[in-house]
Amino acid sequence: MYSGPVTVSSNETLYAVAGGAEYGDSPVGSASYVIQNVAQNSVATPTFSPAAGTYSSPQSIAISDATSGAAIYYTTDGSTPTTSSPVYNGPITVSSTETLKAIAAVTGDSNSTIASAAYTITLQPFFTLTASPTSLTGTASEQGTVTLTVTPGNGFDSTVSFACSGLPTGAICAFNPATVTPSGSPATTQLTISSSAQSSSLQPGSRPFLPLTALAMTVCLFGWRNRRGWHHWLLLAVIGTGLGLVFGCSQTSGTPPVPTTITTPTPTPTSTTSTVTVTATSGTQQEVATISLTVN
């Protein structure tokens, strides 16, 4: 007589009939049970790392299984995987919202249950900055122009401003336009770098005024020495100052002086090279580009 649950631990069929003193016996009922040993015959369910969830950047998903020697089969479109699905051989890159599913199988054992992981990828908008050309060479009085290109990504459409640093002394930079707002396509601005002209105190081959005047006066004084007293010395000084550079001076006696040439050495050209850094800023995001600037 049935008095409580019956434990079925192996394959078997149960039969039962019900009856009573005032009733006839019922028809015979039956139920067949097939018991599988899960611990021995089923492969462990695959697991995903990182786990399912929402991420702000593409993820590299690894699939593993606790059953030694198990082959893992997976799908990326949410469909049910079978042993005909792609075999897992390494991490799977998930760069957009999708659902991964996987099963594991070992010959002679039952396939694992299906594992599923849904990933939501919400990529942050961004931009990149490039410069063309990346180097400028010229004289101090010249200007150089560089094209800066802002390329948007993941729907970036915010305003980008610019600044530069690392300029040599006396140089300035200007952007035209000062800001850009890319919307679905790259936007450009023109960077102009200007530097002030180098200065020099004398041009090559010029002759200073005072040294030449002093030389003319000295030559004159030697020609008139000991001739008419001290007042002639004063007169000669005045004449030498006023006329020495225009006419020179002549001696009334003795040998004429040998002309002397005074030459200023030609300055040696120099060049400097600086690394100019351009910074593009939009909110908390910054991108940089570098330009090599050589001034001769």
Summarize the structure in short.
With 296 residues, this protein is mainly β. The protein is built from three helices and 18 strands.
Provide structural commentary:
The N and C termini lie far apart (111 Å). This protein is rod-shaped. It has a five-stranded mixed sheet, with no helix packed on it. It has 296 residues and is mostly beta strands. The protein has three helices and 18 strands.
Write the layout of secondary structure elements.
Elements: E1 12-16, E2 29-33, H1 38-41, E3 47-49, E4 53-55, E5 59-64, E6 71-75, E7 92-94, E8 98-105, E9 115-121, E10 126-132, E11 135-138, E12 143-153, E13 160-165, E14 171-176, E15 179-180, E16 187-195, H2 209-223, H3 230-247, E17 272-282, E18 285-295
Helix pairs in contact: 2-3
